[in-house]
Amino acid sequence: MFGLFGKKYSNPALLEELRTRQDRWFVFLDKLETRMDELTTAAVPELHTVYQQDDDPYKRSHGQMLMGLIGQVNHMREKANEVREDNIVSFLYGAEATVPVITSEAGRDYHNRILAFRMACINRYYIFDEKVNEAIVLLKGTEGQQDLEGAYREQLAAFERIRDKFSCKQCGGNITIPKMFFIDTYVTCSFCHSQNTFKPSTAARMVMHNARALAEQRTAQLLRAYEESNPQDRSLYAIYLRAMFNEWNSIVPDMAVENEKFYQRLLEEHTINHFK
Amino acid sequence: MAEEKNKRMLSYLEQLKLKATQQPHYGGDITNEEAQMDIRDCPECGAARAYHKGLTACAYCGFVFMETKLTDGIHIKKENNS
Amino acid sequence: MSENPLLAPIHGITLEDYSAACARMGSGLSEEEVAKALGVELPVWQEANLLWPERMKQDATFHIVTLFGQYFGQADQHPKFSVVKAAPPSAEGNANTEKIKADKDYYQELEVARQVAYDYGVDGAQWILDKYGITIGDFQIAASRWNDQIHRDIQADYAGYNARQAAYKAKYQQLFAAAQGGNVADDIEF
Question: What CATH number corresponds to the domain at position A110?
């Protein structure tokens, strides 16, 4: 009996390799995480400053800086992915092929050790990956919420200031702009009936551009109520959607007819998706 | 060593910030235009476009302002065809 | 399909007109030039420009948006725009613009390059215009021409497609990284 199992399988070099490789992987990811942390810590205040100073209505400077930073964070993720493929996953395949079959006693021991290595390395990677996601959320958080309500109120006030200040290009008679327009619009002179063209300011045009986003800001708590309902309550979504479109229509009444058609489509799709 | 790395990080950020804020955006900067009023008189006879005569042709000399068929849009309606 | 009310012209502007106008604006035509080519004034154009996207939003079958993409890709052939062309950035830009529509690999490479540019904080559309003289409108025209073919390539040889994309990506990552003095984690090794 002793003769049969006299030469027990032993591979100290592999055990040593498992240990050192796991250490190196942990140290490597530690370093990447530290660097990522340094990057976000230094970048977040800068991003806030750029956001505040960016007078482009689409905040394109901020957007480009943000994309550059997310690019670097993703680059770290890619770097870790490459090392994982080349130095962890490939190594695992090789190691599993060198040890005895799992049904033997020694084989079982070695397979268990390899399994422990795999679990430790992969779990460590998941922690890293979660940190990458957190870093991206942190960077994106600098977008801030644009004060759309403030900008809208400002434009309402601006319109009241200018609406009586125009005169007909034909006869010079006063023209009062009947309501807030967001695109070039023909207006008729009440004296000589000539067609003039009213061209709204850039800021007034932006009101229409941002109308849905503002309506969503105003009704965010209703959407949240639906999302947080458990089990999910469909009727809460319908309430949110109706309220959001009411707000949207109140900001740009001229688009209400078109908006309603879009509303119908969204409502139907949401209902159908729930019955699937 | 740590200071060296820190310097590199700051110079990277400084560079990125400059790049983002100073590079021209595709399509150019958006200039803030004030609201204004405009008019298009008939280039043939100089007459103004009267509301009840429609938008597409001059009521006096027949000059065609727009070669198109207006439909029911947002403010512009079918009735605005000359 | 001509019965589809969502396809009825808006102020005489058909979906073909509208799609070509969008493509042309992407390649540098101003709103005024587009309206002029369509024979309408700005208030008319701006209404059509609001209402066509509304039609697309209302169409749950995606038929309108599909046609839009198709017509967009054929903008070069639209008769109303055949005489009005934005000033080409350069003779070289012209040649590159032709090439991107004729050479799928060239298009795919520059599409990757454009995306990598954004990852390095560079305005990709502007970078393509500066470096190759290709406008975003022409880029999108090329995209709509090649998309079906690329989709078939992916189905036929997924691994090959991925390998080519990865090679382009690596090439431009290197280029943009070098321009900014490296990536922030270049010194960290396993």
Answer: 1.20.58
